What we know:
By secondary structure, the protein is of the alpha+beta class. Helix content is 37%, strand content 26%. It has helices spanning 2-23, 36-46, 48-53, 73-90, 149-159, and strands at 31-35, 57-61, 68-72, 96-103, 108-115, 165-169, 173-183.
Amino acid sequence: xxxxxTLQLKSLIDQIFELAHLDGGQVSLSIESFxxxxxxxxxxxxxxxxxxxxxxxxxxxxxxSYTQVSSDIAxxxxxxxxxxxxxxxxxxKHGKIVFEIEETTQYQCRLSIIDNGTGIKAEELAxxxxxxxxxxxxxxxxxxxxxxxxxxxxxxxELLQTDIKVQSQLGEGTSFSFSLRRTx
Length: 184
């Protein structure tokens, strides 16, 4: 019990420091060009065990994408990990999570993370990125969570000069999406 609580406290402290560092505005970016689908498959591999325990199917659409983006790969990986971890937590057994890549213009693409999970109440959508807010569906999971993942995600995406959008329907699922710069 002590070991488990210590790990949870360490996770909370790490996330508080990460959020404070992002709020301080002294974060540097390392922009590079890379294949977006390859990054998605790498992130999915990190969460395969959690997804398999709940028998959740995680896929990328289209399955082979040659979309090259220009971004900070480490920061984008952190964003994707936060969003996928949330999706797995709020998706029921035998559920489905899809990473959808859509090339919207010659210079941009939109990435959406779509699940068929518990969804978020409409009146809570405006507050879910606030570090001090805890959504009502957060208590459905028996595990303790810091609740800072979405606040960190929003800050990282602001740093990458893009906005995150969310659509959700209670009991049917949630979709988070944001745009990235494409490279040729």
